[in-house]
């Protein structure tokens, strides 16, 4: 993934949509948890309306807006090079919540 120095870059979208109604199902259990901050920038998350893109191009929800958690990375002004951070994506299975760790590497130009 690449980013421009000093400019916000969308790095993740997480949410669940009902394929029958195209409405948001849950944004609370589909959130990002920061495990390790970037050394040369900052990250932020928010709830935002986004367009749905299904792996099945025939999905009736494709292109429809729904509420999702979004994650942005903003490199420090003037920084150029590689930056990394780690997030844990919350996943609920039965009665247990688990964090699936993900390390994101971004090249800042």
Task: Describe the protein.
- With 109 residues, the chain is mostly beta strands.
- It has a single domain, classed as Immunoglobulin-like, CATH 2.60.40.
- The chain has no helices and nine strands.
- The strands form three sheets. It has a four-stranded mixed sheet with strand order 1-9-8-5, with no helix packed on it. The chain has a three-stranded antiparallel sheet with strand order 2-7-6, with no helix packed on it. A two-stranded antiparallel ribbon has the order 3-4.
- It is globular, with a radius of gyration of 15 Å.
- The model has no long low-confidence stretch (mean pLDDT 86).
At CATH level 2, the architecture is: Sandwich
Q: In the CATH hierarchy, what is the class?
A: Mainly Beta
- Report the count of strand segments: 9
Radius of gyration: 15 Å
When the domains are counted, the total is 1
Quick description:
This protein has 109 residues and is mostly beta strands.
